[in-house]
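This part of the workshop introduces the protein records we will be handling. A record pairs a protein's sequence with a compact description of its fold. Backbone structure tokens are a discrete shorthand for how the chain folds in space. The question running through the whole workshop is how a given chain folds. The record below serves as our worked example for the rest of this section.
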Amino acid sequence: MAYIKERGENTYLVRITIGTDGHGKPVQKSRTFHPSKSNLPKTKLKKELDAFVEAFESEFQNTMISYNEAGFPPSEVLVAEVLPSSQQMISSALQVMPYIPQKQYVPTFAEFCVEYKRVKQKMLSPTSWELYEKALDKYYIPMFGNMLLNEIRPTHVQRAIDFFASPAGRTDGKGPLLAPPTIRRYLTILQSVMTLAYKQEYIDTNPADTRRLEIPKIVAPEVEAFSDEEIKDILSALQEEPLNIRALVATALFTGARRGEIVGLKWDDVDFEKKQIYIRRTIIKLKDTPAFEKLPKTISSIRGIAIPELLCEILSDYKKMQDDKIALLGEKWFSGNYVFTEYDGHVMNPQTPTKQFDHFLKRHGIRHLKFHGLRHSSATLLLSHGTDIKTVSKRLGHTSIDTTNIYVHALEKTDKAAAECFDLFAKS
């Protein structure tokens, strides 16, 4: 018995029943039939269909297998006829039907970045994600947005690197050129995008592979720290400052803590009896979002720092002043228990210490360094006066002593320069 159904223009589905299985269910085979010509008269079409069905039924007539009472074909039939014929059919199919890969749709760089952002944002910290999003939206999408992923070549990536290394690449107006580490971070972001594209088989090779590019070399940064005399000037000038400025600058200088760590200090972190400050969190401020807490940079950054008696006295006086202010403001004060706060008790913006320190240096005519220079100064001061490098590394929260060594090298360089002064004096 045959079942015939028209499937489209000049195409018919022919299904024949060639018997029943051991459970009484019909065993059916299907095949597509194409008439010799389109728009055949019905009589000729019926004649061709009848011939096709007859040949189809005849072809599969010999494949009928008698089933036993249990509903299974006899073993000798299965082994001798069914399996060999199946193997032969598979073997033939593999020979005559080679794998032909389908052409895949390749998105543009801008289109792919939508998917990349969805995947990557879940994997990064808020600060890292802010940098990634900035690099993509501000630089890479304008550069490569309309290009298909497989059209991007190492030459295009090299042009992007050259742009970052040029004056035009410094768009924030904070300096003449982007630092090599910053350029490498931007390149890492592009590498990450193209790596995902490679994994999803949109591209065959990563055009941002560093082996195919010329990248600015990273030179060890110069450590900018105040001299011993400048530190004495700072400490002297602090006597003329309000308690909040005195406490902020002294804490940075005497602990060497990072700016975000200092802003994140709470009074529970200050142990006046043991003369210890504990670093347990840092404060982050992203664009268009309020400042928020997060864990410090690394496990090593969670630490206790011994503090001198002078800092204990300054912080104690500052706390009394703050308590008086809390009593005055009452419910208007936000009780976050932060040491350094905005006017109403809310956590201080990490940018605020930088601004306050800049104004402080200008007021007293002291050489300008960034707020982070206090951290450098704390390290070099300790090392130059005999504190072992392991202790200094622990106070700074460094993961490795290798990081702390930059301060040792800076001191060696300064000492060498001092020796050269004696040479010049002797020769004059």
